[in-house]
Amino acid sequence: MQEYTETYTNPDNEQANSDSKQSNPDSKQAEKQRKLRDSVVRNFLDKEGRLTSIPAQLKKKLIILEHLAEKLEPERVYEEAEINAFIRLYHEDYATIRREFIVQGFMARENERYIRTPRTAARRWEELS
């Protein structure tokens, strides 16, 4: 349910209000994305923060992967056992989530060593329709 707030617009300031409304779509889009992200995280994680299931829909899966990857230290090299233990904190199917981290660009792997990639390297859920 949306909250209604009445505001007073000063007629002398009409041009400034018009200009600010034109730049507002970006903030509305960002707010919409934040609400979607929060909703997906809330729906797929239990009260203890564990993943209840791996989302089938790509956009939701990317949101969850991003949420989990953000908990890893950037640029730190992790051994495979460390990544498996980390993922097991959130879900038992560590192999699937580890593979998705790699496939979707949240992590890179070389010789059973893993590193969290910069956010720009990962597939962006915000770009999906």
UniProtKB/TrEMBL annotation:
Region Disordered: start-end pairs: 1-36
Ranges of residues in domain DUF2087: 50-115
Biased composition (Polar residues): 1-27
InterPro entries, alphabetized: DUF2087
The protein's name: Transcriptional regulator
Organism the protein comes from: Saccharibacillus kuerlensis
